[in-house]
Amino acid sequence: MKLSLVCLLALATVSAAADLSQPIEVMRAVQKEGQGNEAAAKAWQEIVKADAATLPEVLKGMNGANPLAENWLRAAVGVIADEALKAKKLPVEALVTFLKNTQNSPGARVVAFDLIHRADEKLAEELTPTLLEDPSADLRRHPVAKLIDAGDAALEKKDSAAAIVAYGKGLGAARDEDQIKVLAKKLRGLNQKVDLPKHFGFLMSWKMIAPFSNADRSGFDTVYPPEKELKFDASYEGKTKEAKWVDFTSTDEYGKIDFNKPFGMEKSVVGYAATDFFSTEDRPAEIRIGCKDGWKIWLNGELLFARDEYHRGAKLDQYKMPCQLKKGKNTILVKCCQNEQTEQWTVEWEFQLRVCDATGTAILAAK
Amino acid sequence: MKTISMCVLMCLATGVVRADWLQFRGPNASAVSTDAKAPADELKIAWAADLPGRGLSAPIVVGDRVFVTCSSGPGQETLHVFCFNAADGSKRWERAMRTTGRTMTHPKTSVAANTPCSDGDRVFALFSSNDLFAFDLDGNLLWLRGLTFDYANASNSLGMSQSPVVMDGTLVVQSENDSESFVAGLDVATGRNKWKLERPKAANWTSATVWKNTVALQSSAGILAVDPATGKTVWDYSDGASTIPSSVGSGETLYAVSHGITALAPEKGSVTQLWRNEKLNSGTASPLVLGDSLYVVNGAGVLIKASVKNGDEAWKLRMKGPFSGSPVAAGKRIYIVNERGIFQAIDPNVPGGKVVQEIELKETVLTTPAISGGALYVRSDAKLWKLQ
């Protein structure tokens, strides 16, 4: 009798777990412009009624899901978890297992860690050092912060050597600009060399050509010769002078590629910068750009993105473009358009570009 | 949802007018409460609730619930929607989501800059990242959109703040910027586009005005009034307008933040200019109309009273500024909070106007209060207060 009951319960559990696969798939099917919203709303209602034991399964649904589907599932996880936390039934052990499996999506693992933290702060603290080299930049923040604290504590005890070790380890793992800046400053304060361009993976050496016309901002859509051919010994008619390719290597440690330096402070102009990036293998990557001018970018002749916003601000990793690098030479071409504004804060005609993986870890060129 | 509907029915049956504050600047985006119960002459902090992130979005009030949004995390990637009990500030629910669009903003603003809105049954929360979520009042997710996920160049590196409005089953969402600039009418039930219009390619932080069965969309080009059901133009004023403070409608007149204030009497297909006063220069705050007067807060923190009939100035009152949020009004009082968190209640009926009460909230406040049930709700980057 007892055995039958156990079997029934087991079957019910299997059945309940199996039942969730369909609503999870419905949520994963949502697409742009609200496609799939109606079905997802019904599926969401099914999922939020599920037992807390299903949380790892719902989180697993986020693996490979698009960001919209991730949010549907994230919201469902939140509701289930709120109830489970109230009832003290959060499946912490299963969530730790989920967290430790780095094949699971970074977004889902961040949610898992947050839940563990809410349920058992001490356990979350114990797990923190294991996340230092995590594929998720978010999860790296906690252990990096702890290393900053450890370095500070060592310095208070006048133990510079220990501080350098802690800060150095922290910098090696840090992927967020704020933490990197802090660590670089602390290490330099201890007379340590820090190579920020290498850490970030900025591309520092380019061939550049300018000035083509951007009168009335029409240059953004004008196809100038560099978009058709990259002939570095060629010259073309420019807006105010002959446009010729020049070599430029940035000395800015945040990899700023400044057109004003080789070409002067021109307005209403278009410039191009080209470089070759040698990859050791065929691999997915991200090209990340920061730019406050209008810009376009091509990888091996394929347009990755174009943006016609001027002087609203720039920052590291402002735009992230997933791409595929091929083994060997990859040619990157950037078009950078300066507009007609004359205010002091509109003189910048520049960009900053790095090649990295999805975590923000620099991919260094083979040569 | 049932509780709210029942509450509405009971209010109707007893003749009590329940005046929710359902969007940025409340009823019809007028900034004036229609609640029968005005706040008391002397206000105190009734409660304060902690918020885990930043925000310039104003609170909204639906029945006995207060909704507010905020953003947290090193890059403001976590988006929060909160529902609090108006009575005691206890949390009813919270949802935390993740941005799918860009989170870069000017340091002064934040990703939670757009005020949510409600049709009484649903809450629509839009963020500067162009993420948009629809919840029922109990926190059930009804639908979501990632408008930058949909339209990849719809973003502003300084941040966006246009608050959505809802009217007759259509949610009107603006994402006006230098690049992929648009306004869309979405089905409130599904979040799908009913219509979508291109807008001027220029950064714009103004919010729509709901007025005379139209949604008036303000931009540097002027003001375009559209039918919310179809997006079709009802009238178009093309003499330019501000891109920060928003216009206000009252009675048959729209007071456009254009060349100071320009009073417009739009007919179907045409617009008549009634008067213009170029000295009524709004700073960041949007104007309001109370009784037969128009009130403008200029960039120096001076409240200017003017006649709605001809724009003639009546008086000026220097308040404690500076202001990022807009004034609101209920009964015979105007309320505003400055950036340093000094809440100020103004009696505009005494000659020259008078600040009759100040409350120091002791935090930076960059937003506009909400009014409901004789209380005001104000938020900072860390707190939501009820003043009663």
Walkthrough of the structure:
Chain A has helices at residues 2-28, 37-48, 55-60, 67-86, 92-100, 106-119, 121-127, 137-156, 160-173, 177-189, 196-200, 225-228, 260-263, and strands at 205-213, 235-236, 243-249, 256-258, 269-279, 283-291, 294-299, 302-307, 319-325, 328-338, 350-356. By secondary structure, chain A is α+β, with helices and mostly antiparallel strands. Chain A has three domains: 2-131, no CATH class; 137-194, no CATH class; 200-356, Galactose-binding domain-like (Jelly Rolls, Sandwich). In chain A, a hairpin with a 6-residue loop joins strand 2 (235-236) and strand 3. Chain B is mainly beta. In chain B, 4% of the residues lie in helices and 44% in strands. Chain B is built from two helices and 32 strands. Chain B has helices at 2-14, 147-150, and strands spanning 45-50, 60-62, 65-72, 78-85, 91-98, 117-118, 122-126, 131-136, 141-146, 165-167, 170-175, 182-187, 193-198, 209-211, 214-219, 222-226, 233-237, 248-250, 253-257, 261-267, 270-277, 288-290, 293-297, 302-307, 313-318, 328-330, 333-337, 342-347, 354-360, 370-372, 375-379, 383-387. Chain B has a four-stranded antiparallel beta sheet, with no helix packed on it. In chain B, a hairpin with a 2-residue loop joins strand 10 (165-167) and strand 11 (170-175). The longest helix of chain B is centred in the first third of the chain and has 13 residues, at 2-14. Classes of the chains: A alpha+beta (367), B mainly beta (388).
Principal-axes shape call of chain B: globular
Main sheet properties of chain A = 7 strands, antiparallel
Major protein interface: A-B, 41 and 41 residues
Beta-strand percentage range of chain B: 35-45%
Alpha-carbon Rg of chain B, integer = 19 Å
Order of helices and strands of chain A: HHHHHHHHHHHEHEEEHEEEEEEE
Q: Note poorly predicted spans of chain B.
A: 6-17
As laid out across the biggest beta sheet of chain A, the strand order is 2-3-1-5-10-7-8
Strand runs of chain A, count: 11
CATH 4th-level superfamily of the largest domain in chain A: Galactose-binding domain-like
Strand composition percent of chain A: 15-25%
Tell me roughly what share of residues is in helical segments of chain A: 40-55%
